[in-house]
Write a structure and sequence with these properties.
The chain is α+β, with helices and mostly antiparallel strands. It has helices spanning about 60-70, 75-85, 90-100, and strands spanning about 5-10, 15, 20-25, 30-35, 40-45, 45-50. Helix content is about 30%, strand content about 35%. About 10% of the residues are buried.
Length: about 100
């Protein structure tokens, strides 16, 4: 039928990455099925760790200037607010306006 199945020996760790997190499986058991040239991996394990991935936000200078102007604060305060809100202009302006 074109189906081969077997275990993948000596696997120490399996890491799956999404846009927002990493799932790490320590000392997993991995089965590999090869069906018509397609490989299917089955991973089982007990020690599973999930870690959030923090993405670094690049804040354009124009955004900093706009927030500083709209909230009537210094450029440094605007930049700090944008970093706290991960670049969300409206949220940064609202945060600075409420702080007064």
């Amino acid at each position: 039928m074109g189906l081969n199945m077997g275990a993948l020996p000596d696997v120490q760790q399996v890491i799956m990455k999404t846009r927002t997190k990493e799932i790490i499986i320590e000392q997993p058991e991995v089965a590999v099925m090869d069906m018509h040239g397609q490989k299917i991996f089955q991973v089982t394990g007990e020690k599973i760790v999930e870690k959030a991935i923090e993405s670094e936000v690049t804040i354009p200078e124009e955004d900093v200037q706009l927030v500083a102007q709209q909230a009537k604060v210094s450029v440094e305060e605007a930049k700090t607010a944008l970093e706290q809100t991960k670049g969300d202009l409206a949220q940064a302006i609202l945060l600075l306006s409420q702080a007064r």
